Amino acid sequence: MTTGERPPWLALLTSHWVSLLGVGLATTAGFSWLFVLPMHLKGKADNPYIGILAFLIIPAIFILGLILMPVGVWLARRQVVKGLRAMPNRRASLGRLVTFLGLMTFVNLVIGSQATYRAVQHMETDQFCGQSCHVMKPEFTAWKQTPHAAHSHVECVECHIGPGASGWFHAKLAGIQQLKDVTFDTYKRPIESAIESNRLVGSAETCEKCHARERDLGSSVKVRTSYHDDEANTLTETVLTMREGDIHRAHVGPGVRIRYAPADPKRQTIQWVEYSDGKGRTSQYPATGVDAKALAALPKFEMQCVDCHNRAAHTFQSAAKAIDSGLELGEIPTSLPFMKKTGLEIVTSAFPTVEAAATGIPAKLAAFYKEKYPDIAKTRSAEIDAAGKGLVKIYNRNVFPDLKVTWGTYPINLGHTDAPGCFRCHDGGHSTADNSRTISNDCSLCHEAVAVDEASPAVLKTLGIPEKKQTH
Ligand code: HEC
Ligand code: HEC
Ligand code: HEC
Ligand code: HEC
Ligand code: HEC
Predict the structure, then answer these.
(1) Is the CB of 170 under 6 A from ligand 5?
(2) How does residue 2 score in pLDDT terms, banded at 50, 70 and 90?
(3) How confident is the model at residue 471 (pLDDT cuts 50, 70, 90)?
(4) pLDDT category, 43, cuts 50, 70, 90?
(5) Of 31, 79, 380, 420, which residue is most buried, by most CB within 10 angstroms?
(6) Is 160 in the pocket of ligand 3 (CB under 6 A)?
(7) Most distant CA atoms of the chain, gap in Å
(8) How confident is the model at residue 1 (pLDDT cuts 50, 70, 90)?
């Protein structure tokens, strides 16, 4: 060829396999996108995996195709210039392009769209969800129990996806990571709590969309029913007046800012707390005996709603509380001797799988009565069966052996009886350097204990709250 003559780019486009591949990828992606986009818009937007397909994978292929086209043209041109390739014939290459595009269109219509359609359909099935959400079964199960789902259906995305494009993008990236972990079976068991892995979206963008920080909750009366581990499963009640208004004002009130430094990722051991009241007073409360150097190396976080309400949507109960609520709701009969104590021993023993628990729990219970109360085992087997089923239900709400989620895996920070909770700071061991102030652990700071484990507290009569009856 003569130098200076520029080979036509359209002709070059079809001369090199790289540019043809580019054309192929771009058209396939274009077709697939046209196919997936309407699905994404038609109310299926809450399936994150379709979103990943529509907005990340397909566009990535499209862009790759667009990049390959000029690369191929450039490669072909270089070969022509070096004399390694004949100058392409304009008419012939146009014909080739038309044939190629025609072929691609056919392939796309028949194969590409079918494949995409199948893929999307597959993502909508319970099977796919069962596999990918399988990992989230504990959270899904727990979510169904809390008011967030049971009364008002607050969706997962309300708390797990931040606002705007960046929240959306982060969620998609996390989705890809999750898809990868599930596919290659590399996810952690148990999966880390959101606080632990620092994936939590700030309170302002989540909780405070629906719950006003300013709302004064005043005080409220909490009644807790529990059963003793004696033969009669004696019922007692605890009545607390909880100073919710004061509690909220102290940590998330106007101007208040609290920062803290935890020593562990689950943030269960708190080594330093800083309080500012917004009116000029700032106090620092290092934990007793902590040294300044170690402290400087710790990460610091601002206190948010979820530092107390960490399990607002996924409460996994302690075994004792789970059995108490089973007894209270009638899922387990209270009339069988030592039901609370035996039930607790059985549900806290280790079972390798859900199936093993489903048969092992009722079997252990039946064996207990057969050995200790042979008469009851004979005459009241229906009650024992019901109790066994009730215990299995409780177990299945809280323990997921395949994911290594068991009693206490996810501690509840709202309280102090089952996990350190409030006492992470309110333990009497966090004081200012001059000891003039201590984060208080006075029993009446947060609640007045009007009755603790009483058989029939007089205060309930005064308040007109009906007393729970033991069903004997
Ligand atoms: C009301 C807000 C809220 C809603 C709704 C919600 N979550 Fe969560 N979720 C949280 C918070 C807060 C945490 C962090 C808990 C912690 O770190 O202790 C969390 C943690 C998680 C975790 C990490 C493991 C764990 O248990 O800590 C998974 C997985 C999860 N949520 C999945 C879901 C799924 C699936 C749904 C919907 C079925 C959902 N979430 C709905 C607030 C919410
Ligand atoms: C999309 C709205 C929405 C978001 C976001 C939301 N909530 Fe709620 N939440 C509700 C509604 C509605 C209820 C009332 C349920 C009922 O009582 O029927 C509720 C109830 C509650 C309760 C009282 C019931 C209980 O579980 O004891 C707490 C505590 C709570 N939310 C905390 C939180 C926290 C913490 C967050 C942020 C992680 C959050 N919520 C995010 C709507 C929301
Ligand atoms: C210092 C811990 C703490 C922080 C921080 C905190 N709360 Fe609470 N909150 C509590 C306690 C304790 C209760 C009473 C719960 C109980 O006794 O069942 C409560 C109760 C509630 C309730 C239930 C009220 C009802 O109707 O019974 C809601 C809703 C709530 N908090 C939302 C929030 C939101 C939103 C934030 C963040 C702006 C927040 N909380 C920050 C400790 C806290
Ligand atoms: C991260 C540390 C931390 C945690 C966890 C924590 N608090 Fe506090 N709390 C503080 C600090 C700091 C103050 C204010 C101390 C001061 O005035 O200098 C405070 C103050 C209070 C006050 C007000 C005391 C007064 O003198 O008026 C109450 C009530 C309270 N907290 C209840 C709770 C409850 C209930 C929980 C658990 C649900 C809890 N706190 C969890 C750090 C914490
Ligand atoms: C910093 C605040 C705070 C202090 C101090 C505090 N409590 Fe509590 N207490 C709570 C909260 C929050 C709950 C849980 C309420 C809930 O589960 O809704 C609770 C629950 C309880 C319960 C009910 C147990 C249960 O699991 O149902 C008892 C009993 C109790 N506290 C006794 C005490 C005693 C005794 C002290 C003094 C050593 C004390 N509390 C100090 C905040 C506090």
Answers:
(1) no
(2) very low
(3) low
(4) very low
(5) 31
(6) no
(7) 108
(8) very low
Average pLDDT (132-160) is: 77
CB-ligand 2 contact for 383 (6 Å cutoff): no
Average pLDDT over residues 315-328: 95
Which atom number of ligand 4 is nearest to the Cα of residue 424? Answer: 5
Pairwise CA distance, residues 103 & 18, whole Å: 17
Confidence band of 396 (pLDDT split at 50, 70, 90): very high
Contacts of 84 (CB under 8 A, 6+ apart): none
Residue 148 alpha carbon to ligand 2 centre in Å = 5
Strands 301-302 and 257-262: antiparallel
